[in-house]
């Protein structure tokens, strides 16, 4: 009926569009964070694969044997464990950032801001807090990653793989991690825009609520 049409109209508003963009950014952030965490290692020993050495990006190869193979496996596992807390924290943040706009979309569809305009001020405050909090979160993310890449484990791992002629094990940020940082910056800008739209919609709703009283 007319109520359902009014609810669906919210999805066409500027605030809802921003919230849907925030959902997309959060999904992409989750994907990039999971890629950053990677697998348990690029090297798998003979007992696990019946004499096949496996590179995590695909393809069987030989080149490691004996002590070198065992050391490569140890370094892979240690490197993975060093990055795991960072990846989990980034994924947790991405998950929270995914749930938040989904809840606000539901609140908007249910027309809560229309019945309780002060909600929009609460929404604005939450957006500003999240946008500001994104800055130290990104700093912690990159600072922690660089600490891992500058560790002796990463350096030894890089040298060991390079000595066998294999590339892709450099101690530097890779594309998914840089993308995660860019997505975080884009999300912060989207939150600030949503905060401004929430203030605008609050003024509009407040004025419309006052019209019957003035008549």
TrEMBL record:
Q: Which residues form the MARVEL domain?
A: 10-203
Q: Where are the transmembrane segments?
A: 21-43, 86-107, 119-142, 178-199
One cellular-component annotation, GO: membrane
**Membrane topology term:** Multi-pass membrane protein
**What is its subcellular localisation?**
Membrane
- Write down the InterPro entries for this protein, in alphabetical order: Marvel, MARVEL_domain_protein_3
Q: Which UniProt keywords apply?
A: Membrane, Transmembrane, Transmembrane helix
Q: Which PANTHER family match?
A: GEO08273P1-RELATED
Name of protein: MALD3 protein
> In the UniProt record, what gene is named as encoding this protein?
Marveld3_1
């Amino acid at each position: 009926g007319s109520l359902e049409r009014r609810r669906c109209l919210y999805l066409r508003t500027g605030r809802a569009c921003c919230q849907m963009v925030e959902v997309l950014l959060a999904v992409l952030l989750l994907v990039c964070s999971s890629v950053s965490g990677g697998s348990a290692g690029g090297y798998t020993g003979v007992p696990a694969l019946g004499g096949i050495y496996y590179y995590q990006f695909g393809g069987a190869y030989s080149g490691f044997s004996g002590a070198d193979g065992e050391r490569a496996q140890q370094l892979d596992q240690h490197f993975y464990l060093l990055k795991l807390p960072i990846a989990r924290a980034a994924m947790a943040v991405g998950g929270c950032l995914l749930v938040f706009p989904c809840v606000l979309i539901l609140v908007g569809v249910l027309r809560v801001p229309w019945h309780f305009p002060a909600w929009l001020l609460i929404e604005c405050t939450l957006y500003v807090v999240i946008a500001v909090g994104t800055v130290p979160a990104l700093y912690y993310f990159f600072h922690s990653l660089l600490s891992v890449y500058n560790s002796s484990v990463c350096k030894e791992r890089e040298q060991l793989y390079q000595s066998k002629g294999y590339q892709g094990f450099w101690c530097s940020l890779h594309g998914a991690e840089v993308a995660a940082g860019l997505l975080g910056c884009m999300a912060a800008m989207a939150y600030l825009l949503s905060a401004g739209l929430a203030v605008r919609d609050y003024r509009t709703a407040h004025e419309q609520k006052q019209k019957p009283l003035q008549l």
